[in-house]
Amino acid sequence: MLNYQKGWMVLHYMHAIEHTYISLLADVARSSGFSEIRGSYEGLHWCLYEAPKLEKLILGYIEVGSDANLDSFPGWLHRLVAASLVDAVRLREVRQLLLFCYKAYVTYDTKSTQTAFQGFLETNHQVGQYSNWLSQASPVLLDLARKHCQSVLYRFREKALKPSHGPGAVTTSKEKWQHLYSTIEYLYPYSDWYSLYFNRDCAMNYDDMLRQDIIRAKLIAVPKDSRGPRLICVHPAEAIWLQQGLRRELERAIAIKRLASGPWPCGKIHFDDQSVNGKIALMSSNSRRYATLDMKEASDRISDVLVQILFGRKYKAFGCCRAQELSFLRVVALPTYVGG
User: Fold this and answer.
1) Residue 11: how many CB atoms within 10 A of its CB?
2) What are the phi and psi torsion angles at 35 (to 5°)?
3) Residue 183 CB coordination number (10 Å)
4) pLDDT confidence band for 13 (50 / 70 / 90)
5) Which range, of 46-55, 129-138, 297-306, 330-339, averages the lowest pLDDT?
6) How far is it, in rounded angstroms, from Cα 240 to Cα 163?
7) Of 38, 48, 103, 313, which is the most buried if we count CB atoms within 10 A?
8) Sequence-separated (6 or more) residues with CB below 8 Å from residue 106
9) From CA 68, how far away is CA 78, in angstroms rounded?
10) pLDDT reported for residue 7
């Protein structure tokens, strides 16, 4: 019964997407004056998987200043695509059509999920090879990066944390502490950082907690976009509780305007105000002075060895609540070079 209801909800959701997209075609046809767009529905598969790729083609044509290869687009889009290269309003309309389903909630089959897991393991292996020679490679650049990090971290107060539960998923209950991890206990004793910060009931159950030396996390797949699932690393609630406090204090240290001189940014960084980044992106799209680099699987490529080198003695506060083992289909022991 449950599977039937779930299947019906997915089917209803897909019908709603199709109905809304057909209405969008009519709106764009009316606003652009290109009547051939009305009713030219290519199907849900095209909207989900093919259309987003075509949007990137258009941006590429604009970037290099070349004419569009209209053969790559359906005939009903030819006039709108050609107009979008010189008209910002037409560009907005064609992007609405091509990106409409990009973030749609779609279910992933087993093959897609397995491919994502395999990609994670391959990336992890690459990061491990990189970490093996990291300390010997580019020592001058590495030292400069370390100084840059230290110019921020000297303001980081590792004993002034305000731990809390986050909004994300956890592998253990947020209502009651179940595990006492030795790596956390060494720096942040549960009697001070957990029981007293949390509630009296947890303090009474201190002796009943399971003592463990290894923090185990789970790698799970969650919906992202039409390209496939996003993998997230879900930690126990005891680890997340401390990680949230570390995150908040690190953001405070980063956000403080630095007066130290050096070849690194010294302005104030805003975590709750994106207007600064927006202005820089807008100016740079014209001047080409700055660029944004978006590395594939960026968070999975952060080497734990690199973080240790850059953070120095401050690393222990972050490393104590980081998982040492990860499971998805089977338990995988994480070497020290793995980040993410």
Assistant:
1) 10
2) -65, -20
3) 18
4) low
5) 330-339
6) 9
7) 48
8) 48, 223, 226
9) 9
10) 47
